[in-house]
Amino acid sequence: MDVLKAKYLDLIGKADSESGLEDLRIAALGKKGEISLQMRELGKMSPEERQTAGPALNALKDEINSALVAKKAALGDAALDERLRGEWLDVTLPARGRPLGSIHPISQVTEEVTAIFADMGFSVAEGPQIESDWYNFDALNIPGHHPARAEMDTFYTHRAEGDNRPPHVLRTHTSPVQIRSLEANGAPIRIICPGRVYRADYDQTHTPMFHQVEGLAIDKDISMANLKWCLEEFVKAFFEVDQVDLRFRASHFPFTEPSAEVDIRCSWEGGTLKVGEGDDWLEILGSGMVHPKVLQAAGVDPSVYQGFAFGVGIDRIAMLKYGIPDLRAFFDSDLRWLRHYGFRSLDVPTLHGGLSK
Ligand code: PHE
After folding, report:
1. Residues 6 or more apart from 259 whose CB is under 8 A from it?
2. Residue 166 binned pLDDT confidence (cut-offs 50, 70, 90)
């Protein structure tokens, strides 16, 4: 019995798995186990022998049993410890953000432009998308016969038969908001007006609805130099570059005099656009000094006040900044496109926090 006891306690001590332990239990206490066979021998013994051997065997059986139970518990604890080590988790880590949808590049760029001009003291103004032809054309020095009306591929609304008033239009640019804001607030004024505009045109870089942001600064002493500085600051901040060359090209708009279209220096090396370097120029906006007739139409005295205006295509600068090749995809509502080009919903662009990061 002592031999059996020493043997099994030793083997149990060395067991390293629950299945090994089960094998030992069967070898010792199973039907044909060594200890069970000894129990069977009791029948052949004399009553005196049985009296000492019986309790001793039972005690051995109990001892082996409890050694098995204790070892099984120990093996279980070890397995649990092992698992806990493997599945260790740092509950102090910040939560992993699950994006709530995403921000469309147009909204993102509108926010970026707004943040930049807000920093220069411009506030945001808005106007209707269905506009009278007075605000969209006449007040902006585009009279009825003017070729700009035809050039803009205007969408006209329908008038009932016999109604001879001029039809409303879907605004072809954000410039009518200049007139509305001056009428409502007078001069001096410093505003930007982002919003949707409409022209009947459709190809890779044109869609019938697109977005512009208008800028307007009117005061007693605003010059072309102020326009130039503002636009340079804007382009540097927007494209997130330290240096950028702008080219002011003489142009013509009925509502500004003089007028300039503005190009930025860029390169297309390797098929990707880099702003601020290279030998190419890319037109990004129209601008000029507000025409005295426009100020007059808005009730502002052009002998006292003057200033500049500009209009930027939001979609266009979004395509440039974020390398988006086809304008039409902006409005397809393709979720894969939106996930790829969209922005995190909680990252609000600011100048101090970063525009696009
Ligand atoms: N309204 C012009 C356009 O849509 C842009 C512009 C705005 C030009 C203001 C000069 C000044 O093309």
Report:
1. 250, 251, 252, 253, 286, 287, 288
2. confident
Q: pLDDT tens for residues 63-89?
A: 999 999 999 999 889 889 989 888 988
pLDDT attached to residue 40: 86
Place of tokens 């640019």: 173
Determine how many CB atoms are found less than 10 A away from the CB of residue 275: 23
**Residue 278 phi/psi, 5° resolution?**
100, -175
Question: Which residue's alpha carbon is nearest to atom 4 within ligand 1?
Answer: 173
**DSSP letter for each residue of 289-338:** EEPHHHHHHTT--TTT-EEEEEEEEHHHHHHHHHT---GGGGGS--HHHH
C-alpha 171 – ligand 1 centre gap (Å): 12
Q: Which DSSP helix (H) or strand (E) runs through 215?
A: strand 209-219
Ligand 1 pocket mutation, candidates 131, 178, 182, 255, criterion most atoms within 8 A of CB: 255
Q: Residue 326's pLDDT band (boundaries 50, 70, 90)?
A: confident
Superfamily of domain 105-344: Bira Bifunctional Protein; Domain 2 (3.30.930.10)
pLDDT digits (tens, 9 = 90+) for 82-129: 898 889 888 898 887 776 788 999 999 999 999 999 999 999 999 999
Q: What is the pTM of this model?
A: 0.72
Distance 286 CA to ligand 1 centre (A): 5
CA-nearest residue, atom 7 of ligand 1: 311
| Measured distance CA(329)–CA(334) in Å, rounded | 8
Q: What angle do CA 350, 128, 315 make, to 5 degrees?
A: 45
List the domain boundaries for the chain: 2-86, 105-344
Report CA(261)–ligand 1 centroid distance (Å): 9
Mean pLDDT across 4-22: 90
pLDDT tens for residues 338-350? 989 998 877 778 8
Q: Which positions ≥6 away from 211 have C-beta within 8 Å?
A: 106, 110, 194, 195, 196, 197, 313, 314, 315
